[in-house]
Write a structure and sequence with these properties.
alpha+beta, binds flavin-adenine dinucleotide, eight-stranded mixed beta sheet, 367 residues, 3 domains, 13 strands
Length: 367
């Protein structure tokens, strides 16, 4: 089987489609030398049925649609303050849960690994809230999502567009499934995130790190801040002081396929697309930007429009157009650019302290 190939995004749809998944699975999640998830086939036990290749969204692109563009914000202050942008994800998910459904999205586990999980209560939903800027492990999401859909429960899936495409390939045009993709400029691996956490631990004189929160709202939505905590102590940095965010935004260590992302553009795989509304202006007819977060929402299908309509009264929203949204959000026209020092970063990872490695990597660009 030609799995994985260079376009592999690590979505693990292939493992979900493998008929040899029970007991000791033939197709399992592994990691490449940079720590990105890749499938691994036990060739000796593979029966060569081809289902892994047939489902692969990198080999068989899914249909995309371009929809209407809105700037939105939840009216609930608590939801807004704990969300990364305008809190639209939580509003969407709350509707699906209220209808007896489930929500699938990215959460930190107890080891601070980012994993896609399925939840069905408002308490557990909070684990999905907020961006985690690390590649999420999709391995364990397909089975519970299938169980929910098979039981006739509505389901919301939210994730990066390559993950959303994978869910589309696995579940097809399932009437109960609502897909919200994010605008995504790429993902670092858990190996990079771990190197950053270890560097922070040493810099701060921390013990075991037990919490990470991206995009704190207190210093302002636009600051892209991050907070790391250990035993009740915290260190918080704004994006320009934080090496992880700087390297992430600077294209220093994204997955290789992100630099040629087929989902960067206005045509989307989700019923809805959620993102930050960078460069939002209240003129001529909008609401005030108080720097607590504004979501860009793209309503791409009829199903998306129905879900969007249900949020009326709970969100502020104003219609905009794609040209306005794309002015300050490069993911709507191009994939992220790889930093010219990306190779040096990978060569130094694990050998040079994380902070110095990023500073060296971005020095040329920032001169
Ligand atoms: C890796 C990554 C890159 C992004 N890049 C951009 C960008 O370039 N431009 C832009 O406008 N927006 C980007 N976003 C989206 C943005 O950060 C917000 O997630 C989005 O605006 C939704 O905000 P919200 O307030 O509605 O919901 P929130 O509650 O903040 O978002 C929660 C949702 O995000 C999903 N999520 C969180 N972390 C991950 C992850 N690691 N992998 C997959 N899904 C995840 C969860 O499943 C959950 O559904 C990116 C998000 C991620 C995770």
């Amino acid at each position: 089987m030609n799995i994985p190939d260079a376009a592999c995004t690590g979505c693990m749809a292939c493992a979900a489609a493998c008929p040899m998944g029970a007991g000791e699975p033939v197709l399992t999640r592994s990691e490449d030398e940079r720590g990105f998830y890749v499938p691994k086939i036990d060739e000796a036990r593979c029966i060569g049925c081809g289902r892994c290749e047939a489902v692969c969204p990198a080999k068989h692109p899914v249909a995309k649609a371009e929809g209407q563009v809105y700037a939105c914000r939840t009216r609930d202050p608590a939801t807004l303050s704990a969300s990364s942008s305008g809190g639209v994800f939580m509003e969407l998910a709350s509707d699906v849960l209220a209808a007896g459904g489930v929500a699938a999205g990215a959460a930190f586990d107890e080891d601070l690994r980012v994993v896609h999980i399925v939840v069905d209560s408002p308490e557990k939903l909070r684990r999905l809230q907020g961006s985690k800027y690390v590649q999420s492990d999709m391995s364990a999401v397909y089975a519970p999502l299938k169980a929910a859909l098979d039981a006739g429960r509505p389901a919301l899936f939210s994730g990066t567009p390559c993950q959303a495409a994978a869910v589309r390939r696995v579940f097809g045009d399932n009437a109960g499934l609502l897909v919200a993709d994010l605008l995504c400029h790429g993902t670092p691996s858990m190996a990079v995130f771990r190197a950053y956490l270890e560097w922070t631990r040493q810099e701060a004189g921390f013990g075991k790190i037990d919490g990470v929160k991206f995009r704190l709202k207190k210093p302002g939505w636009k600051t892209y801040s991050v907070e790391v905590s250990s035993g009740g102590r915290t260190v918080a940095r704004l994006s320009k002081q934080d090496p992880y965010i700087r390297g992430f935004l600077g294209g220093l260590y994204l997955r290789e396929c992100c630099y040629g992302c087929q989902y960067a553009g206005p045509r989307r795989v989700g019923d809805l697309t959620i993102a930050d509304y960078w460069g939002y202006s209240k003129e001529p007819d909008g609401f005030e930007d108080d720097d607590r977060g504004i979501s860009l929402v793209m309503v791409n299908t009829d199903k998306g429009a129905e879900a969007f309509g249900k949020m009326e009264g709970r969100i502020d929203s104003v219609r905009r157009d794609i040209a306005d949204a794309a002015k300050h959000n490069w993911v709507l026209h191009d994939p992220s650019a790889r930093s010219e020092r990306s190779g040096d970063f990978w060569a130094g990872l694990g050998k040079v302290p994380f902070g110095s490695l990023v500073a060296q990597g971005l020095a040329a660009r920032e001169k």
